[in-house]
Design goal:
The protein is α+β, with helices and mostly antiparallel strands. The chain has one domain (about 10-70). It is built from 1 helix and 4 strands; from the N terminus they run E-E-E-E-H. It has one helix spanning about 55-70, and strands spanning about 10-20, 25-30, 45, 50. Strands 1, 2, 3 and 4 form a 4-stranded antiparallel beta sheet that branches. The relative contact order is 0.16.
Length: about 80
């Protein structure tokens, strides 16, 4: 893969999730690193995102499917510091 094909990636360092009071929905917010030199304590925060319980279940299913794909692949992360 060439540099021109690289996709900008912002590693997630944490999240907050919970019910949205008064609605049939959940909210989630991510903490993420916007720079390779950024410390975990300096993580950026996204806006709160609202999703329905059905969307949350579909997200869980997609994540589980893709976790298995990653675990079954021969691709490994580069060595070095991990956040």
């Amino acid at each position: 893969m060439s540099k021109q094909d690289d996709i900008p990636v912002f590693p997630v360092s944490g999240w907050k999730v919970g019910p949205l009071p008064g609605y049939d929905a959940l909210v989630l917010k991510f903490q993420y690193l916007s720079s390779p030199m950024q410390q975990l304590e300096e993580a950026q925060e996204s806006q709160f995102f609202a999703i329905t319980p059905e969307m949350a279940e579909a997200l869980i299913s997609d994540l589980q499917k893709h976790i298995q794909t990653v675990r079954n692949s021969d691709i490994h992360s580069p060595e070095g510091d991990k956040h």
